[in-house]
Amino acid sequence: MTILYFAWLKERMGTGEETIALPEGVTTVGGLIAHLKARDPRLETILAGDAKVLTAVNQEMATAETPLADGDEVAFFPPMTGGRAP
Fold first, then answer.
1. Residue 7 is assigned to a structural domain of this protein
2. d(CA 56, CA 62)
3. How does pLDDT run across 7-61, given as a tens digit for each residue?
4. Domain of residue 27, residue span
5. pLDDT at 81 (0 to 100)
6. Whole-prediction pTM value?
7. Is 86 within a domain?
């Protein structure tokens, strides 16, 4: 599985991408987040419940209940704002 970090998450992690095996017993985005937080103390803060971080699985918006499969791409990113430039 590929995990992508965008914007300030990429800066804090020191990488924009990592590849991991889908952890045994992890079947949802929420389970993956719990696994990542336990594995890396930086992610405990970055992915805290009150943090403004969105998740996408295979380029579709996801929730904690979104199922995962081996080979999925999971992206973490902050909410985007803005619009068209004049």
1. yes
2. 5
3. 989 999 999 999 999 999 999 999 999 999 999 988 888 887 666 889 999 999 9
4. 2-77
5. 52
6. 0.87
7. no
Domain-located, residue 38 = yes
d(CA 69, CA 67): 7
How many domains are contained in the chain? Answer: 1
Please report, for the domain that includes residue 32, its CATH number: 3.10.20.30
Q: How far apart are CA 61 and CA 45, in angstroms?
A: 21
Residue 84 in domain: no
Residue 83 pLDDT more than 60? no
**In terms of Cα–Cα distance, which of 2, 21, 6 is closest to 54?**
6
